[in-house]
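Subject: Sanity check before I submit

Could someone independently write out the structure tokens for this chain? I want to compare against mine line by line before I put it in a report. The sequence has 288 residues.
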Amino acid sequence: MTATGKLGILNPLAIIFENHLARLGMVIIGIFILAALFAPWLAPHDPIAQNLGQRLQPPSWTYPLGTDDLGRCVLSRMIHATRISLRIGLLVVGITAISGSIIGLFSGYTGGITDELIMRATDVFLAFPGIVLALVVAGVLGPGLTNTMLALALIGWTGYARLVRGCVLSTREKTFVEATQVLGAGHVYIMFRHILPEVLGPVLVMATLGMGWTILSSAALSFLGLGAQPPVPEWGAMLSSGRPYLRTAWHLSTFPGLAIMVVVLAFNFLGDGLNDALNHKKKPADGN
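---
Independent answer below. Compare away.
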């Protein structure tokens, strides 16, 4: 029996009913996704429309989270910023998870000098702190959301490559893989049909946790002026623009900071829940 039938270990229903923190994380993530999808209808004001006569207003009925230094509605900008943060997270994690998994799969399965070369190249990337390398790449490419995603994608694949390679090294020695080789199946077929499904669980856990890291890192780059550029609403950029007004307009930085913290925490809760479910389902199999 191949690993295809084991994908039930990642059934979301099991996470919802067995892990309270994972359930809380899913609820929070769901709220942010709905806010992103229906941002034009949920935002009470135009997120980029300026009204200098209403600048630095505290939270009120008209502006529930106040206004910024240009009189723009903070709540409206935060809702629209959800779209940007989730889009960056999905695109970067999707690219890095797919590319890193394929590299790790190929490296672990082929072994030998190919494996050594790929892993040494991976070690070079891992020798530098991720956010520092992202700063260098974003600085060279220039500010902007596209360059931010490229910078994060260039450093994000390494973790997936090492994770998948480690899983492949243990999986390729299993009986069902050896049996498939004896039957004359091709290497590509074995890698993608029999070995890859075995490593999807750990990759999904890492990708879920990676969503939080990516959103946090993109906010950090925007905070430093290398990410989203005005007037695009983005949580990190909103944090940066609110720094001069921490004493007089606390709401400018507080609410974007809370949004970043909550969404990153939610993805961490969900990732931990997925990891617990994966390990729990593996225990009976290991004992057989």
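---
OP: Matches mine. For the report I'm noting this point. The chain has one domain: 65-283.
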